[in-house]
Structures are given as C-alpha cells and as structure tokens.
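Re: your question from the hallway

Yes, I did run it. Sequences:
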Amino acid sequence: MERDDIYEYSLDNHHSEEQGKKVRRKIWVVTAILTVITTIEVAIGALVHQDSSSWWIVKLLFIGLTLLKAGYIVLTFMHLGDERKALKYVILAPYALFIIYLIYIAINEANAVHQAWETYGG
Amino acid sequence: MAGHATAQVDNATAWGGKTSPFNVSYGKLMMWFFLVSDALTFSGLLVSYGVVRHTTTEAWPIGEETFSSLPFLGHGYPLIYVAIMTFILIVSSVTMVLAVEAGHRMDKKGVMKWMVATIIGGFFFLGSQAWEWSHFIHGSEFGSIELADGSRAIVRGHMGEFQSFTIVEGGKHHKTGDVLSPTAKEEENKLSSEELLHDFRHAAALGHVKGDKIRLHDGSIATWKKADDHEMEIRVKTDGSGQKIKGLQRIEGADALKTYWGVVTSGEKGRVIYGADLTENEYGPSQYGQFFFFITGFHGFHVFSGVMINILIFLGVARGVYHKRGHYEMVEKTGLYWHFVDLVWVFVFTFFYLV
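Structure:
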C-alpha cells in the first residue's frame, strides 16, 4: 500500500548543511534565552517574599515570563512558527479561546466562594 | 526552519482533496491534535488547582519555604533544586530538537547521538522527581505544629542531633537500662542519629512523646538525649478558625524552643505533622498535597512514557528504518511530544513553585 502522506509532505523535510548551521544557531540562542528566564524567575522567587505588598507585580511578571518561555518552546522547538499559518491558528486559537474563558470564569467563581467562606466561615 | 512548506499550492488544489491545506503529513497533524487535547487536560488540572487555591481561607504553602533542600546539602537553598530540574528538562528538549535537525540532514549518527542525550536527560529528570517526591513525603525535621490556640505553624531552623535513647521501662525488644545510640556496643542497640530522629518523629506524630518520656514502637518507654537546636523560628500561618494570618507572625529564640517542644511533648496525637500524604501534610491544606501528587505525578508519567517512546524510536534509528524510508519524520513527531512535556513543566514550575 502506498503511503501518500509520506511521499507528499514528509520528503520535503530536508535541509542542507548551511541551512542546518542557521537552524542550530537559532536553537542555541533560544536555549540561552530559556535558561536566562528560568534563572531570573528563581532569583526573584527566592528574594521577594510572598507577603510583600508588591507580590502581585511579581506574580504577573512570572506569568508573563512563563508565557514567553512557552512561546519559544512552541514556536521554535516545536516548529509551529514555521508551519502554515492555517495550521498554526487551528491549533492555537480554539485552545487559547477556551482556556482564557475557563481561567476567567473559574477563578472569578473561586474568589466569590473564598469571600463567602471568609465572611460566613467555611 | 525545518518542517515548512516548500511548494505553494493554489486554493482550488489545496482544498480539493488529495493534498493537505496544512501541508503536513497525517501523522504529524494527528500528533498535534493529540497534544492539543493533552494540553486541555493539563490546563483543566492546573485551573482546578487554581480554583482550590483561590477558594481556601487557610494559608497556602509558599514555594520557597516548601522546596528549599538539596541532596547531601540539607536545607536553606530555596528553589535551587527545582531550578536544576527545570534546566535538565530544557536541555533535554534542546538535544531533542538537535536530533530533529540532524534528521533533516539525513545524518543518522547525529540523530543517534542527540537522542541518547535526550534519553539520559529524561532519566535524570525522573530521578530528580523521585528525590523530590521522597523529600516532600518525608518532610522537614521539625514538621508543622498546632499551637495551644489551635493555629498552625511551620518550623524552620537547624535541629540538634539525637544522641541516645535510654530505656527506662522495657518493652517487647528493649530491656530496661538499654541505651540506643550510634556508639552502642550491641548490634541491636546501634542506631544512627537519623534513625533515632526517625523513631522520635514517628512517636511524636502519634502523640507518644509526653513530658520527657517517649514510647517506642515496641512499647518500651525511654528518655532521650539530643544536642541543642539552633536558629529555630516558628512561622504561624493559619489561625484557630482556619483563616490565613495576614502578614508575618513569628516566634523566635527561647520562646520558639519553649513553644515547639511544648507542643511536641504534649502527648496529643495530630499536633505535629511530618511530611505529606493524601490526607494531610505539614506544608498547608490537604488539597495542596493532593494536587502536588496528582499533577506532578501525571506529568512524571508523561515524562516516563516520553522516555520509553524515545527509546523505541532510537532503536528504529539505529536499525536504519527511517534512513531507508528517506526521512526522519518519526523523530520529529516524538520530538513534538517530548517538547510538549517540557512545555507542561514550564507551567507546573510556575504555578506550583513560583507563584
């Protein structure tokens, strides 16, 4: 049985020695970025105490840095940035839409329950 | 980068069948679909963790207080260990992407080299996680305590070494007058200070330590001798009605020693908690431990399956299966899964350890 999927697309996935050099360079640059971000996160986590009043800024910063890391992993390591735009958005858009909604509604609800428990006892 | 379209097709051809408008093979597309569904599962777990954390009125554990130990070096190194774990996983992701890159050049030796590195990285991560779990389950030397007013506190500092137990009333194994210590002559009485501490914690958790007497598990009663504790600090987290205490409430110095040993030697069961299981843990609310075990466990299971899949694919590469096929797309597909495991860890790391 002939596998048309293999012949039509998979065979295109080749590159030359020079292209490989560029690709590897990019991989190492992204590695450095991911390492630096993780180091910054750990340093802030160890230095700033959670009871400090500026903790919410740190929290937002952590989430931002995490999304940045996730972006590098998905777009570079998983090559999604190099795929067709259609594929990229078919994967990212429905997921993002659903999860943003889920986070919004679940955390809002949780905060309301928290307030009720704090006021009337759990 | 690799994996991209080379030939452009017009819309009529693209959507008319036979060709994929996404310009990827069936296998790769299905791997992406699987990853999206798996991502939804992990998101669901992390969001439910967030919900529980936001609803609870008790104090939630703080990452840098809970995870501050290194193997062989003891405690006082906040978050360093998880940072190393994260780094190991990132590096193994890098070696995987290098394997994929080598595959695009049909460099069989390169693929093999980088896949071996990836597999080793995966095993290292699994080993680190085993240590992390073991440490989490066994807990700190002091444990957490319930104060006289019902509030809960964690305890930090350096515990003095246990030196000996002297049996004052014999039980099933030990006779009156026996001295259990690291320097005991008789083999059955020889216990290292770690073993003495272990027995002491076991008895204290059950409420078997009262006044200056400890009841060991064979029923014998003993007195103990230990070195002094240093720099003890009690951090009160949750008040008697189960509400988080805002701001810092600490007990230090001689007061801390008096309070701590008062609780431990009260002879009441449940006032000291050591480590974690599914019903309670010394770090905070029970749900914290449950989510920790479930989410990091589920992720660890993914890492384990990833390593196994990598090994299978490595064997395929070594046998030249993909070289004969003319492309290394199988390596790319397992690579997608492996990167996904790394991606999930990035989020677990943030929400369990940092925030």
